[in-house]
């Protein structure tokens, strides 16, 4: 955590197209955690899902060349920053240039690219965008790798960005909790599946723990059949407290169904 704070203190001084700045950022972020902080890896590395290897990164001796090519592309591309930053992020994760900290660095560098385009992203970093969607994040990376096409990852990131910038502003971002986002899509009485789909979520367990249970525990929503919580006909609706919370947030729809967006 201290390393992360130190890294973000230097955020404004780094240039997205400067490879030396990326190495410095990694040195600060991983200081005291790994021996190769600030250096490209010298050995092989793979991405694991349990006991299964889902991605074997390129050999270590190719990393400097691949990273130089990636930075050269970033320097000359005319792609929109939203697209270019997502492509950079995916290609960075594919190369996996460091022994550790690749996920954090990829997200940090996309934030940096976006913040140089629009200062809004200094207040809403990519790390925050995907905090609630980590399963989908890794799934999008894996899908892009399987297809040898960064499009699935780009689409995922654009959806996260759209959802975030339409659901909050820097001044109120900390108030827009998962349960408040759930309230914003709750219209009348809705089933669990309808709520999950309206939020653009796929992971049922994550939806239950991060959204549904906190909203129920806080008394913001209630069951339509409280004496049969597992009923197949169960639906959820706002309570008076939930309506008051929505009123404090302007009564508007804080979350947008990203399927109608980018």
- How many angstroms separate the termini? 33 Å
Q: Helix-strand pattern, N to C?
A: HHEEHHHHHHHHHHEEH
Low-confidence spans: pLDDT under 50, at least 5 residues? 169-175, 251-262
What is the overall shape?
Answer: elongated
Number of DSSP helices? 13
CATH fold descriptor of the largest domain: Fic-like fold
Share of helix, binned:
40-55%
Rounded radius of gyration (Å): 21 Å
CATH architecture descriptor text of the largest domain: Orthogonal Bundle
Mean pLDDT, nearest integer?
A: 85
User: Which percent band covers the strand fraction?
Assistant: 5-15%
Helix/strand-derived class? mainly alpha
Q: Find the CATH superfamily of the largest domain.
A: Fido-like domain
Structural account:
There is one protein chain. This protein is mainly alpha-helical. It folds into two domains: 2-167, Fido-like domain (Fic-like fold), CATH 1.10.3290.10; 177-260, Winged helix-like DNA-binding domain superfamily/Winged helix DNA-binding domain (Arc Repressor Mutant, subunit A). It is elongated and about 60 Å long. It has helices at 2-9, 19-29, 63-76, 81-95, 102-117, 120-123, 126-129, 134-147, 151-167, 178-185, 192-198, 204-217, 240-248, and strands at 46-49, 52-56, 221-223, 236-238. The longest helix is centred in the middle third of the chain and has 17 residues, at 151-167. The two termini are 33 Å apart. Helix 1 packs antiparallel against helix 2 (19-29), helix 8 (134-147) packs antiparallel against helix 9 (151-167) and helix 10 (178-185) packs across helix 12 (204-217). Strand 1 and strand 2 form a beta hairpin. A two-stranded antiparallel ribbon has the order 1-2. A two-stranded antiparallel ribbon has the order 3-4.
């Amino acid at each position: 955590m201290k390393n992360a704070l130190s890294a973000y203190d230097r955020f404004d001084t780094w240039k997205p197209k400067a490879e030396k700045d990326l190495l410095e950022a990694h040195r600060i972020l991983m200081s005291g955690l790994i021996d190769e902080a600030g250096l490209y890896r010298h050995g092989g590395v793979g991405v694991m899902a349990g006991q299964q290897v889902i991605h074997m990164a390129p050999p270590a001796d190719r990393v400097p060349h691949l990273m130089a090519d990636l930075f050269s592309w970033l320097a000359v591309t005319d792609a929109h920053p939203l697209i270019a930053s997502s492509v950079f992020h995916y290609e960075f994760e594919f190369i996996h240039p460091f022994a550790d900290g690749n996920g954090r660095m990829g997200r940090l560098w996309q934030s940096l690219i976006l913040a140089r385009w629009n200062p809004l992203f200094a207040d809403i970093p990519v790390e925050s965008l995907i905090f609630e969607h980590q399963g989908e994040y890794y799934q999008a990376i894996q899908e892009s790798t399987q297809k040898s096409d960064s499009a699935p990852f780009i689409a995922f990131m654009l959806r996260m960005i759209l959802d975030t910038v339409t659901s909050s502003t820097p001044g109120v971002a900390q108030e827009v909790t998962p349960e408040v986002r759930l309230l914003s899509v709750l219209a009348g009485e809705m089933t669990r599946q309808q709520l999950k789909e309206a939020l653009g979520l796929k992971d049922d367990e994550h939806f239950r723990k991060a959204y549904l249970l906190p909203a129920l525990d806080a008394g913001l929503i209630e069951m339509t059949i409280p004496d049969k919580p597992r009923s197949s006909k169960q639906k959820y609706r706002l309570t008076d407290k939930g309506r008051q919370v929505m009123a404090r947030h302007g009564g508007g729809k804080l979350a947008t169904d990203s399927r109608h967006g980018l």
